[in-house]
Amino acid sequence: MSGAIDVAKMFGLHGKTAIVTGGTGGLGTAMTTALASAGADIISIEIHNDPGSERTAKIVTDCGRKIRKYECDVSNLKSIRATYQKIWSDGLSADILLNCAGIQRRSDAADFTDEDIDAVIDINVKATLVSCQEFAKKLIADGRPGKIINIASIISFIGGKNITPYAASKGGVMQVTKALSNEWAEKGIQVNSIHPGYFKTALTEQYSTDPKYKDFNNYLMSRVPAKRWGDPKDLSGAVIFLASAASDYVSGSGVIVDGGFMGM
């Protein structure tokens, strides 16, 4: 091997387009921002009247990138498939898929309702799988390579407490990622996952600020070697790596971003 490596080109996403589901939430916005900052245009699949839609769109355009929005209820698999068909019929194509859409429900294990279980599994697992299917079918038909990034969790590995459906769903996301990689890596489609640890977002801020959760916060800080909650921006490097040419020989893997929690 001779000559220097063009690192900017290796990690750059200029000329690429990314489809993002759930890219308007706390973690999703940060990762969408990372993709746009690295040069990718964005196709955002969002819920109707998404409260984060305009904020995310402004961030993308401020990065000098284009964004197209498509409304979709990702809990409805037929709606997901129809949305992809609309994207393709509009003459768009994409190189990257980032599946961020996800929900959480908390309860004692014995008390979860059928509705809670269905909601978590439908959005976290089924929607992720169908989104991957529709994206990859187009790439395979066109004979093009691509990148799929699924957002799992450290709960894929450790189970947690009072979040049984979520634990099942994130374990499922990890296994879906591996199974799809086994079929599609030879076609030049890398399928990987990111496993965030405990991150500070609007949904989790109470756990670090509310005195009611002081014991939990103290426990967490004793378990995280970095001694802090994750900032959504901490996911930027992982998503750019998995979306770029830098990860062309990485597939079926999970990148853990947790401040060292899993190493304790």
UniProtKB/TrEMBL annotation:
PROSITE patterns: ADH_SHORT
Pfam families assigned to the protein according to its UniProt record, in alphabetical order: adh_short_C2 (PF13561)
Gene Ontology MF annotations: oxidoreductase activity, acting on the CH-OH group of donors, NAD or NADP as acceptor
Keywords: NADP, Oxidoreductase
Family label: Belongs to the short-chain dehydrogenases/reductases (SDR) family.
Name of this chain's protein: 2-deoxy-D-gluconate 3-dehydrogenase
